[in-house]
Model the fold of this input.
Amino acid sequence: MSNLSLVCENLKPLISDEEVNSLQSEVNLHHKSLLEGSGKGSEYLGWLGLPSGFSDSTKIISVADTIRKSCDVFIVVGIGGSYLGSRAGISYLNSSFSNQLDSYSKPEIYFAGQNISSDYHADLFDLIADRDICINVISKSGTTTEPAVAFRLLKEMMEKKYGSEGARDRIVVTTDSNKGGLKSLADELGYRTFLIPGDVGGRYSVLTPVGLFPMAVAGINIKELMEGAYLAERLYANSSLSQNDAYYYAVMRQLLNQKGKTTEILATFQPAFHYLADWWKQLVGESEGKDLKGIFPASVEFTSDLHSMGQWIQEGNRNVFETFLVLGSSRRQLKIPAFKNDADGLNYLAGETMDTINEKAWLGTASAHKDGGVPNMTLRIKDRSPYSLGQIFYFFERAVAMTAYLNAVNPFDQPGVEFYKKNMFKLLGKPGF
Ligand code: PA5
Done:
């Protein structure tokens, strides 16, 4: 039974059933090339079968348990696909304040190497100075500048504090199975290492140790998460648009894009979904934005952003569509109390839950935006469980790969990312640039 349901009523009448059906044969072709490995980027299709092939849980859970016992602070060092998935999972599943709560507090979890800000890292080092730390440095290529810089600083700090051997026991490396500088360093210094399959690219790697190990350290049930992903692998294995919501979503996006709706706004109503939206933006941005094509992925957090971006979305440039991520039910229900003096006029809501109000905010927003010329659809998510999250990750991976193929672009490369690096290396005087 699926924990996700896609509701597309608010795309009518802009998108007709005939238009959707007209793309079925193209979808069949791309589905076949995904399965047969005959499409663009076919050397990176390992993510398709990660859930059904999952057998790594024992090592991941046992190293995670050791790390949990050895430190107060756990730092994930990585950028892009090497950190967004675990960050999304931890914030989706744990308390908004897990680093401050006793029930979660060992270890607190922070992220480094996702920027080159001196102040950010110096502030982090202040925070951890007197704490016991462990780190997981994650880089598939093993050569990415941002995490490499942060790792150098952390390694030096840890070796001063614990000695080389002590530091070694507190450093876990996740990198490509057989290439890259980080792999050789890990082999040379004897770091515990998780390997990323060669046929899984960065932004499709959340269901490998890249995402799973930090989530396990955060106390997340990764077996349940992979079971949810496995459900998705089976649910989205059929090319029929009437039976595959991931492909249906892909087709809707494609048709909207063709009608000039070139920006997709992923709108959430839960702060816990903030980094899930960041993960999604990277997945869409790097997979689809090339060859002068691609939907621009944006995100907002409602109702907060209804008080900042709401005006623009309601009445600004009509080149956008929205996808709402809506949570079926919160873990805990808070009821609105009655006030003797109804000064704020809220007594009509006394006894109602916050979920009820949030749900009406979604319904009201969806219909206002539709009336304002912003077609929208909703992905309803049953709950904030690992099972649902596993399904969500796989749903979007499958959908984005399909939209990219419908647009005739390679979903699995990111050649454009190299341009800033070349300039930066030249400016820094890197040999050979
Ligand atoms: O999706 C991708 O491949 C990229 O976003 C990478 O994840 C990101 O650039 C980090 O690369 P690496 O893991 O090699 O350090």
